[in-house]
Fold each of these.
Amino acid sequence: MAGKILAWTGRPFEKETPEGLPRIHREPPLQLFGKLTTKAQFENVVAAHDYGYFQVSAYLMRQMIRCGRVAQCIQTRSTALTGTPIQWLLGKNNDKGRRAVVDIETDWPLIASPAARAQLSTWGWFMGVSMAQKHWYVAPTTGRSIPRIEPYNPMWTNWDWSVYAYRVWTWNDGIRIVPSPSLQVPGEPWQPAPGLSNYGADDPRLWVVHEPYGVNSWANDLNFIHSLWEDYFGYALANNDMNRVCEKQGRGQMVLKYPKSTDDKGNTTRDALIEALLNVGSEGIFPLEQYGRDVEGDTHGYELEPFAWPATGYDIVSGTKQSNGDAIAGRITGHNTSGETKGATGTQGGAQTGNLIRGDIRVDDCGNEKHTIEQQVLRDWAEANYGDPDLAPVMVYAVGSTLPRSSASPTISAFLTI
């Protein structure tokens, strides 16, 4: 039975939730860090992450995603997940179970928007763990309790070895303890480490903990903090070097040669020529005085000639950037870039490859999301609205195709059950 909405109190974060359901916490304001630029800084961040300290590695994640190459690949991968149609099957074959399957079609867009799903998965790929809260409210049109998923920034999450659970900082409710679902047996309450019984776990109906790599997911070497940082670091350095090379080569630099005078002070001819060179625009004419030739035939006087940086330097930097960019694409999407596949599959095939995620990766992403959502969201939704968590509908992904979200329909027959 859905609860009622109570009145707004007028104070921040104090809006009441449906009766009997937990109130949402709010995360603290984001902290700012300087940009990480050296290999030693990157290695220190990864070491802190291995120990369970996620604050700085969360900032490294943001820095990596702001790279255009990384963002492009992440957007492709997350869109492949959120654009995969979902069909809903019966949790229980009875009247309530059939009603739940019909109702979830209406409630699912309210529970998990594509943006929230993409954020939860992206943070999970990078950090090895991502968290969200179920912001409970009553839908005004149906009267059902809706656990809207709101991602919680991993910057405010650490792994607490003393209790073997996550420690989460909140703005309005202090420190909360959130157990790892991968270390829990379903149905059994969380138990802290011996001697630390004063640490109580937060309400499990509030938190969503996405662990795409299983037990101790955040320490798994497959997460991008571990497996992508070197490729990103090389790509970022090469991109910066390439811009500097282009700046030098594009300025049209020149070399001025002039004879050494017995008195360089007050050489008005030379000083005027240098001033003209410093202020030259798109075109320039420079009168250069020559003193004739000596007995060896060498000309003495002023000489002006263009200066060109060796092309090999640019090629080395460009190759470094390309190889690291390909490594980034391969790690995130599971395949090489369209440029690499062109020779083997043709221009059209290469371009199509660049728009897709490798099939096994896509299946894995859908399966990981399915496990998290079914166990931690849909069962709570079913219990809150029908009194039985086992009535939760079963998610089935059409991983054989990517369709516009408006085209996703339960009438599609080519579904693969994860």
Amino acid sequence: MQQKKWTCSGVAKDGQQHPNQNHQGSHQPYENYGHDCVICNLTQEQVVGGGSKSSGKVIAIPIIVGIIAALGFGFRTLVSSSLPITSSPKTSSPKTSLPSPSPSVSVSPPQEARSQCSTDQLVKKSGNLFGAIEVGSKGVKAKVIQELATPNEDGTKLILFRKEKIDDRNVTAVEPSSQSATVEAVKSTYQDIQKRFNIPCEQIVIYGSSGLAEKAPHKEVLVQEIQQATGRAMNFITPEEEGSLVFDGVVPAWRLNEVILVDIGSGNTKGAFLDSDDKHISFSIPFGTTTFTNEVKENQGKIDFKGAAENVKHKKLLPQIVSEVQRKPGMQTLPRVYLAGGISWALFTLTRPCSREYNVVRKREERFDSFAPISSEDINTFYYNATQDQKTLFNPDLSNCSTERREEVQKEIAQIKKDIFSEDNLIAGAEILRAFNEELGFSKKEIFFVRSGKDALPIGYLKQRLKNIKEDAG
């Protein structure tokens, strides 16, 4: 149950400074919902009893602010005067920076949003938790990420904070008709992160997926309204950046020169590998499970969806893959393939549900530990069942599953069938898998579904933003 809010002004009830207090002296009264103060880290027990001395200030500030706002004076000036002054990050080179919203869509947040944050950019204010909100073509999802004081066994300082799960908000963000619902989903997710995890707003980042950026005709308005609702700047990432960030998040260091990542999303397919100079080589195909479904329907005519999907694959999908391979031959020569994305998860769940995902432990170079073997033949079976035998598709053999895994798989199958993919989506996704199977020669490679791919992007994105902060400070 969520705790009742309590106010801290940086003054302990015993009047002393405490070892856990990282903001020396008093600060502007702040309403907290958890056990520790977001500003200074004093606990509720250390403060309660002494906070009443500031109660007059807590009441007076909103009244004074309301009067000033009514008179038309600068509300931001009053509030920001007691907050840290930060400069906006400088523009870095394309190799190390992520794009910022274009000036044409930058807006001033409303008074309510401005009163919460000292800036709309990422700033390390207090604590070691960060929030990352992703606005994708088919919904809004978020992760809370913890920054460790020193690198852990896998060599990284950023890990998922697994204390509580944040529910995904299922909205079709790519459709203009869902604009209001998308903004509300982002706002509620943002508020949820603040209240449940006591994360300062300055430590919450919002970004749009590459698929949404490519397909949403209203993306500039979406940026405006999300910033108005939250006070936070929203950035879009390119497919190339997305592929590289996910690659860095899922590929072990000792496999870096052996692997090509193929991440099939709802809006596009992207991926990356390293060349002989250890430089990221990214690729992007403007078809994902949803967008390819829509493309097939637009060109379907009077034939069934299966036939239309195969036609569109040969006319539009394969030529784009071939073009990328011709310019980036490493896509075909590397011995390992890591598959990520929703349709890859469906492939594994419906063809290899009891296959053991093996873990690599106590290797400093290993970032994520869950790898599930997939074969070229599994892709062909998945396609056949999706197009010819739906009954078999959704009733895979679970006899070799443990009781726990069987229950988990049954829930995942229900999600795939009822909540995530339509029948046409599964056929379209299977065609994308078949196309890469053919052109990259999966039959001669080791293929793995990487479950942790779904968590790699927010960690990679936050890592890049924090890196930019350090470079700017330098």
